[in-house]
Specification:
two-stranded antiparallel ribbon; 332 residues; 12 strands
């Protein structure tokens, strides 16, 4: 929050459907299979005087994308899930619910691994070589973000909404880059870290608000429009970052480290390292933005992480429960 003061793949991608088979064979968390009469082709029945031949109906079974994934509970399982998620996200053919499922799986796996450093070596060994630096960067970024968490026994007085479409948000990032020279990938990464790309509506303990989490005094100096509007907040963040070295147009200083430090002057530098990791991943493969766009709002509590689902809304903080941890908070 601002303060006042590839498309060629680097590894052999597993197509989404093949990856689901791999996960099933490895007895990992699998998506539910479903089918009803709409998925059955009714075969014709042919009758003659001599005999009656009935062709049995052909049944088609489909596997629905799992939009509520769970991380595996062993290193090899996590590695297989990473292969599936990253391969699906990088594949231009992955769209709709398959892309949503891949992004959500990617998030829960990296969150899980960020709390298990003792598994790093085993996961790394189980991954294809080209995927290892991608996984490391994401895990490291998650660890940076978790490093300053204060676990609470309550859930926050926030409202969680759907994110605007990824292509709409990208237009805003690119507008910020065009006007102020801040690379769009960095604006996307700030948006991801600050509010999960606009999902989180609430005021932080420091008083920051809006999708780019502006302190009111900083908004007064650099903001234009509505602090709670994605477009206005993103372009204003670009203006603020450019004023602090984030302008990377030819001849400009392009000091993104300083721009991120001024945006959130965390004394250990965790904020700028996390944002930079996400931004550089998007620079390396712009489809990474589509995966990150599906990341949800999780809240760390004394009982465990709670998924604040779309539609969660609490006017005041309330006690966290075991059911919140198991099922998420908000409508299912």
């Amino acid at each position: 929050m601002p303060r006042a003061a590839a498309a060629a793949l680097p590894w052999t991608a597993v197509p989404p459907r093949s990856a689901r088979l791999l996960l099933a064979l490895l007895t990992l968390t699998a998506a539910c299979a479903g089918g009803d009469d709409a998925g059955i082709d009714r075969a014709a029945t042919t009758t003659t005087a001599a005999d009656t031949t009935t062709t049995p109906p052909e049944t088609t079974t489909t596997t629905a994308p799992d939009l509520d994934p769970r991380a595996a509970d062993d290193p090899q399982g996590l590695a297989a899930q990473i292969v599936h998620a990253e391969g699906a996200i990088a594949d231009p053919a992955t769209t709709g619910d398959e892309l949503r499922a891949a992004g959500r799986l990617q998030q829960v796996v990296y969150r899980a691994l960020s709390t298990r450093p003792e598994w790093d070596e085993a996961v790394d060994a189980a991954l294809p070589e080209g995927l290892r630096p991608i996984a490391r960067a994401n895990v490291d970024a998650n660890r940076e973000l978790r490093s300053t968490l204060r676990l609470r026994d309550t859930l926050p007085a926030w409202r969680i909404v759907e994110a605007a479409p990824a292509d709409e948000l990208r237009r805003y990032y690119e507008e910020g880059q065009s006007l102020h020279g801040v690379p769009w990938e960095y604006l996307a990464a700030v948006h991801l870290v600050e509010s999960r790309m606009g999902r989180l509506r609430g005021i932080s303990t420091a008083g920051a608000q809006g999708p780019m989490q502006f302190i009111p005094s900083t908004w007064d100096a650099y903001g234009e429009g509505d602090i709670n509007d994605n477009r206005d907040a993103i372009v204003s963040a670009a203006r603020y970052m450019a004023a602090n070295g984030g302008d990377c147009r030819e001849g400009a200083p392009c000091n993104l480290d300083n721009a991120l430090h001024r945006y959130n002057p965390a004394p250990t530098g965790w904020y700028k390292r996390a944002v930079t990791a996400f931004a550089e991943r998007i620079r390396a493969d712009e489809r990474a933005h589509l995966g990150y766009h599906e990341w949800q709002v999780f809240y760390a509590t004394t009982l465990g992480d709670v998924w604040l689902r779309i539609g969660y809304e609490e006017p005041e903080s309330r006690a966290v429960t075991e059911a919140d941890v198991a099922n998420g908070a908000g409508p299912r």
